[in-house]
From TrEMBL:
Keyword Iron: yes
Name assigned to this protein: Carbon monoxide dehydrogenase
Keyword terms: 4Fe-4S, Iron, Iron-sulfur, Metal-binding, Nickel, Oxidoreductase
Source superkingdom: Bacteria
Organism: Desulfitobacterium dichloroeliminans (strain LMG P-21439 / DCA1)
Cofactor (UniProt): [4Fe-4S] cluster
UniProt KW Transferase keyword: no
Catalysed reaction equations from the record: CO + 2 oxidized [2Fe-2S]-[ferredoxin] + H2O = 2 reduced [2Fe-2S]-[ferredoxin] + CO2 + 2 H(+)
Any matching Pfam family: Prismane
Binding site for [4Fe-4S] cluster 2: C46, C49, C54, C68
Length: 635
């Protein structure tokens, strides 16, 4: 057994219950996997053709090449490119669904709103579309057309979602490297082709292709998905709620939404309210919806739905015995949930044609019948409530108050209370005068190799103490929310003196009557695009390249291929991008060197791997200070 499975008291409490209930969890399975394959860990195993698998001896005593002649450098670079392309594919697929939804909504064929006309206009304007006197649905269809043209682009031209939204200086860098993506599907296909047996054997070319996948992810995945979702459901504004498993309620029907795409979860939130009387009719006080992973973040940001927990404790949510239904869509869903749900009364519901889990009930989600599916799911939860066994229920009494909903628009809105004409000025002034040393974006997952949340929390404590403002998304945001870093008290407790002064000034001006939280929750994993938009705006305001900004990124506990693709995008934006878990690349000196140093000369950013939270925080601060110096801020 691992010494510490988590630092989240609710998870620790439930891990004990899981042991008592005889439930096997992710930590047990991790233990059974020990020792993990050394070749795989180093990226030195190739299964790209069926002459293999081939593996390279990292100690130089065994084979130095695969059967085809592929070296360690080639094998590692090919494996990485495939992983990053897979991460990008997940986000592009997500974005594509959101584009389809906007199209059908604009045509009046589905019962979805176009909630944010201002955002629609802003995006249309950014794409060079005339907005004057056009009906929202007409404008939406024109925006959709550009998105579809990007998806089906047969030309050599780059995606318009990239050329319209990326910083100018970055576009020049990417163009000079030949990594501007065309149609995202084509780029992902090409990466698959490029890495098959007998194809690219140049590690440098493969690493550049990986950087291109980062851009596919950043713009064809993250940015496109967020833009579409904001138009459909609204751009987030500050909301106040709670985080951690203590948000489940013994006397309510508890329905958890888990996964990533808000197209269904938005409907569930709506129907949970409407069907509340049916819950009351079976003796419950109502329906409590709570979220896991990014479906949770999405409905938190726009609807103020509380967060249940993050990736690593998804099984433990069911172990509470109080979850009547867990509905999942895509990504980060453990296949073990089916088995665990069968030990309690929980009804696990899958909804997507590409995510089916034995033991789960499958209720197909389609845009055309979303309301029916959502109603059926809420009713199943109400029915399951009646089957709940009170003897098995244990809801750990932990929850932290949180403020979330910090879209760029919300941040600019708060700052405009200080300077209505130039809202970014107060932020920039405080960066220039050193009250805010810099900004770090913490993103990504939990990883079972790290005690749940410890890296997020310990590293961020150190950053805040040193007056670094932190913005967060994904499961990192969950971790920091649970740890009490997303409320005003968190500013008092964790922020360094000068950061506290700024947070207090903004909080007072924005009418909170208290400081802004020291960690700003900017949303789901696709909402990393909001961080991209913020740094693009900051760079534009200052007239510098994003690579010059005192800004860094970190995925403290990365687990998914998506974390690698998001991280690669952050590197292409010119940021030092920290990873707290070593990715499978150390088998190649050349690839490791390119990723952690060699790329910097050409792209400005680099990966920084450090497995100790304190050291990582100081490494990032050092990087930020170098950038401050280069900008002439601290002479
Ligand atoms: Fe081995 Fe080359 Fe086939 Fe990979 S592509 S499995 S290294 S022969
Ligand atoms: Fe996520």
């Amino acid at each position: 057994m691992l010494n510490i499975r988590s630092i989240d008291p609710a998870a620790l409490d439930l891990a004990k219950k899981a042991d008592k209930d005889g439930i096997e969890t992710v930590w047990d399975r991790y233990e059974k996997q020990q020792p993990q394959c050394g070749f795989g860990s180093l990226g030195l195993c190739c299964r790209h053709c069926i002459q293999g698998p081939c593996r390279i001896d990292p100690f130089g005593k065994g084979p130095e090449k695969g059967i085809c002649g592929a070296t360690a450098d080639v094998i590692v670079a090919r494996n990485l490119l495939r992983q990053v392309a897979a991460g990008a594919a997940a986000h592009v697929d997500h974005a594509y669904e959101a584009v389809e939804a906007l199209k059908l909504a604009a045509e009046g064929k589905i019962d979805y709103p176009i909630a944010d006309i201002n955002k629609l206009k802003a995006i249309a304007t950014g794409l060079g579309i005339e907005t004057e006197s056009k009906e929202p649905n007409v404008l939406a269809l024109e925006v959709v057309q550009v998105a579809y043209e990007d998806m089906g682009n047969h030309q050599k031209r780059p995606m318009r979602w990239v050329s319209a939204h990326a910083p100018k200086q970055r576009l020049e860098v990417w163009e000079s490297l030949g990594i501007l993506p065309r149609n995202p599907d084509r780029e992902i296909r090409e990466a698959m082709h490029q890495t098959t047996m007998g194809m690219d054997a140049d590690p440098v070319n493969l690493v550049l292709a990986t950087a291109k996948q980062g851009l596919v992810d950043g713009y064809g995945g993250l940015k496109l998905a967020t833009d579409m979702q904001d138009i459909l459901f609204g751009t987030p504004a500050p909301v106040v709620t709670e985080a951690n498993l203590g948000v489940l309620k013994e006397d309510y029907v508890n329905l958890i939404v888990h996964g990533h795409v808000p197209l269904l979860s938005e409907k569930i939130v709506q129907w949970a309210k409407t069907l509340s009387p049916e819950a009351e009719a079976v003796g419950a006080k109502g329906v409590q919806v709570a979220g896991i992973c990014c479906s949770g973040n999405e409905v938190l940001m726009r609807q103020g739905v509380p967060l249940a927990t993050n990736y690593l404790a998804q099984e433990l949510a069911i172990v509470t015995g109080a979850v009547d239904t867990m509905v999942v869509d895509v990504q980060c869903i453990m296949p073990s949930l089916g088995q665990i749900a069968s030990c309690y009364h929980t009804e696990l519901i899958t909804t997507m044609p590409i995510v089916k889990i034995p033991g789960a009930t499958h209720i197909p989600f389609t845009l055309e019948h979303a309301d029916e599916a959502a109603q059926e799911i809420v009713r199943k939860a109400i029915a399951a409530y009646a089957r709940r066994d009170p003897n098995k229920v244990h809801i750990p009494d932990y929850r932290a108050k949180i403020m979330a909903g910090f879209s760029v628009e919300a941040i600019v809105g708060a700052l405009s209370k200080l300077d209505a004409d130039q809202p970014l000025k107060p932020l920039v002034d405080n960066i220039v005068n050193g009250n805010i040393v810099g900004v770090v974006a913490t993103v990504g997952c939990n990883n079972v190799k790290v005690a749940q949340d410890i890296f997020h929390v310990e590293m961020v404590k150190e950053l805040l103490k040193n007056n670094v403002l932190v913005v967060a998304t994904g499961c990192s945001a969950h971790a920091l929310a649970k740890a009490g870093m997303m409320n005003s008290e968190g500013a008092e407790k964790y922020a360094g003196e000068s950061l506290k002064v700024v947070l207090t000034a903004i909080g007072e001006a924005a009418g909170l009557g208290a400081p802004l939280p020291p960690v700003l929750h900017m949303g789901s994993c696709v909402d990393n695009s909001r961080i991209g938009d913020l740094v693009t705006a900051l760079a534009g305001y200052l007239g510098v390249d994003t690579a010059a900004l005192p800004v860094a990124a970190s995925a403290p506990e990365p687990q998914h291929e998506k974390a690698l693709s998001i991280g690669t995008w952050a590197v292409t934006m010119g940021f030092t991008t920290h990873l707290g878990v070593v990715p499978p690349v150390l088998g190649s000196k050349q690839v490791t060197e390119l990723l952690t140093a060699g790329l910097t000369d050409v792209i400005g950013g680099k990966f920084y791997v450090e497995t100790d939270p304190q050291t990582a925080a100081h490494g990032l601060i050092e990087d930020i200070c170098k950038k401050r110096k280069a900008l002439g801020l601290d002479q």
